[in-house]
Design a protein that fits this description.
Distance between the termini: 22 Å
Order of helices and strands: EEHEEEEHHHHHHHHHHHHH
Radius of gyration: 19 Å
Number of helices: 14
Shape: globular
Low-confidence stretches: 1-13
Structural class: alpha+beta
Number of strands: 6
Largest sheet: 6 strands, antiparallel
Oligomer: single chain
């Protein structure tokens, strides 16, 4: 199948309700666990959650915060995903927004057959790609969320960055109506544009990071910044626009390109952790710089970003968090 939803609605009405269910059939192969962990990155992530069977998070769909849960049935070559939405009111429009967001969030329509064919012929990549077969490269629901994720992790470990993101969502995210005790949606520009930098500093953000996040949110709300419109621009122009923002350097811009815009040929070459992992993976004794990363990845064009995400999953597998095929 091509990743488009299959008609399996259980709520056969246009009237708004508190729950809605449907099924989708992702492009094969697909393993929900791998894609969920590529979003989570760390076990303490409270925005993107995985309990070993169910992937869940809260989405902002229009003006509504809606709890999303996804489960997979069937093997990776014939996977079907059962999707549940809870909150309210959830109507057909809300469901349509959820379907579109889910396609992006879980990479349901991404075709990695070219990467798989290349890896099968490559003695270096073959084993890793085989273990991670069924992984689809996810994207954050919005480019703004990708930007905030990148800013939170600037000059910090992912572990610390995820703690900051958890606090941000808990403090400023919108809760789901009628679903007590659940998580909150990741805050969007509307939620953060009126926040003072000192409030984010209390959550652990530096004032520079706080001003970057709030400044971007304010520019979006004012109609002065269109992050989603970067989708239409080529790499150099989009990176230039991002690096024109206060507090955004090359690593942040490239991370947003990969994680927010789905530019799967981009490996954030200034990512120290990813560089170290790449050196170990390739048994390179010398330290790679930005140019060195590009040089060693040239043989695998245009899949540098796919390799970046595979190396992340490999690290999570080494930590015992991801089950191997």
């Amino acid at each position: 199948m091509d990743g488009t939803p299959v008609p399996a609605d259980l709520d056969d009405t246009d009237a708004p309700g508190l729950r809605r269910r449907f099924e989708v059939e992702p492009a094969a192969p697909f393993r929900l666990e791998l894609t969920a962990w590529a979003l989570r990155r760390r076990a303490h992530n409270e925005v993107d959650r995985w309990d070993g069977h169910i992937y869940s998070r809260v989405l902002l769909l229009g003006d509504e915060a809606v709890a999303l849960s996804v489960t997979q049935s069937g093997p990776r070559d014939a996977a079907r995903l059962a999707v549940a939405l809870a909150g309210g009111p959830i109507d057909r429009r809300c469901e349509a927004l959820a379907r579109g967001t889910l396609d992006k969030l879980l990479g349901l329509e991404v075709d990695l057959s070219g990467f798989a064919a290349m890896a099968a012929r490559d003695p270096v990549l073959e084993e890793l790609a085989a273990r991670m077969r069924g992984f689809k490269p996810p994207r954050f629901p919005t480019v703004f969320e990708a930007l905030v994720n990148a800013v939170a992790c600037q000059q910090l470990s992912i572990t610390v960055g995820v703690h900051l993101l958890n606090r941000l969502a808990a403090a400023h995210g919108r809760a789901v109506s009628g679903v007590p005790g659940g998580a909150s949606a990741f805050p969007g520009p509307q939620e953060l544009s009126g926040v003072a930098p000192e409030e984010l500093k209390l959550l652990g953000f530096s004032l520079t990071k706080a001003r970057t996040i709030i400044g971007a949110a304010q520019a979006i709300v004012a109609g002065e910044l269109d992050l989603e419109g970067l989708e239409l621009l080529d790499d150099d122009v989009a990176i230039g626009r991002l690096m024109g923002l206060y507090g955004v350097g090359r690593w942040t811009a490239e991370y947003v390109m990969l994680r927010g815009l789905g530019r799967l040929h981009i490996f954030p070459g200034d990512d120290v952790g990813a560089r170290n992992k790449l050196e170990r993976f390739l048994d390179i004794e010398s330290k790679l710089d930005y140019a060195g990363v590009a040089q060693v990845l040239a043989r695998w064009r245009p899949y540098a970003g796919v390799i970046y995400l595979h190396l992340l999953l490999d690290s999570l597998s080494e930590a015992g968090l991801v089950a191997e095929a």
